[in-house]
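Re: that backbone. Tokens:
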């Protein structure tokens, strides 16, 4: 499900009438971003974990996923951007933690070709069906 996202949080400035401060994102990315101004300004960009953040072995939390996608913006292998392909997150070192420092983004085609194990996002409640298909 796509949602309207303010690129710069609305409370940091007026909502520009021409729409240049808006973007469409999935609910999970929008919730992962929360009120962050930039990915590098979040504690998750520095591999911080809340008590409830640790997830299953093949999963990644919404905040950590958003940091990786916001930082990468392109497939690590073919360099296609988010306008051309949907990006997914994987661990660079398979046995390492699912933290932004150890994660990168890739498109499905490159991920399959390189045999990467994509991490399963903790989908937003509105998108739970998305992870089952």
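Recovered sequence:
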């Amino acid at each position: 499900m796509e949602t309207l996202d303010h690129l710069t949080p609305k409370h940091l400035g007026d909502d520009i009438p021409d729409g240049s401060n808006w973007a469409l994102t999935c609910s999970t990315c929008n919730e992962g971003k929360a009120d962050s101004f930039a990915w590098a300004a979040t504690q998750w960009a520095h591999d911080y974990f809340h008590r409830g953040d640790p997830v299953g072995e093949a999963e990644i939390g919404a905040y950590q996923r958003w940091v990786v996608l916001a930082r990468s913006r392109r497939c690590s292998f073919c360099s296609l951007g988010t306008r051309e392909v949907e990006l997914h997150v994987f661990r660079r070192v398979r046995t390492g933690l699912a933290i932004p420092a150890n994660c990168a983004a890739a498109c499905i085609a490159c991920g399959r070709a390189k045999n990467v194990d994509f991490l399963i996002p903790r989908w937003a409640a509105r998108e739970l069906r998305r992870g089952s298909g």
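The CA atoms of residues 27 and 126 lie 7 Å apart. Strands lie at 2-6, 22-26, 59-60, 87-91, 103-107, 120-121.
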